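Record format v2
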Amino acid sequence: MLLQLKNVFKWVNSGGQRVFLLKDINLTVEEGEFISVMGPSGSGKSTLLNVIGMLDSFDEGEYRFLDEPVHTLKEKHRANLYKQYIGFVFQSYHLLDDLTVQENLEMPLLYKKVGSSERKSLVADTLDRFNIVGKKDLFPAQLSGGQQQLVGVARALISSPKLVLADEPTGNLNSKQGEEIMELFKQLNNEGVTIIQVTHSEKNATYGSRIINLLDGRKI
Ligand SMILES: Nc1ncnc2c1ncn2[C@@H]1O[C@H](COP(=O)(O)OP(=O)(O)OP(=O)(O)O)[C@@H](O)[C@H]1O
């Protein structure tokens, strides 16, 4: 088992009322699964992904990741855990504007304390694999939306995460680029990487092996 959520609730207080973002979520994910999270806008998909990625806290329930009780860990320990094992692909790319493509790719390796020469070689391999060698010295603002998304995906994968979390990973890509990303995910998954993607696309969901449907913060 890679991770397990037990009776997880998340809410915000608004005008003295609790507004639930996640309601009684129970979810077990085995290593090697490829899961699609679907549901209407506002149903809690991104919130669930952020909770799984430890970027968001929750108010009630338990979360175990690789047998670590995430809900009781101190912030620093939790950050080490996700930096070590999780790669994120965001809908809006979250690239660092002041860093070049090459430097953006290097960030997760710095987090993981990978040595300088190995970093250089991993960055070179990744630039090559994603066909973006020619872009290495450009800044994000000098790239098209699709190219930025590609760099975002490359950055998520460079440190060989155990789990990839992707929020609408093809949202800003044309259909050919989108298919390339999905094929890449499929290949990674075949190599044993666990993938959880949020998607509105039935077609993208067919790449996965299980669908989780959300409605008003609840699994249905
Ligand atoms: N910090 C917050 N405070 C108040 N409401 C929030 C907060 N974060 C999220 N919400 C609300 O919680 C609901 C779920 O949001 P979430 O972004 O998880 O939905 P989603 O299913 O990913 O939607 P979309 O498909 O539009 O991206 C939304 O109604 C959103 O407005």
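Residues 12, 21, 39, 41-47 surround adenosine-5'-triphosphate (CB under 6 Å).
The first helix runs from residue 45 to 52.
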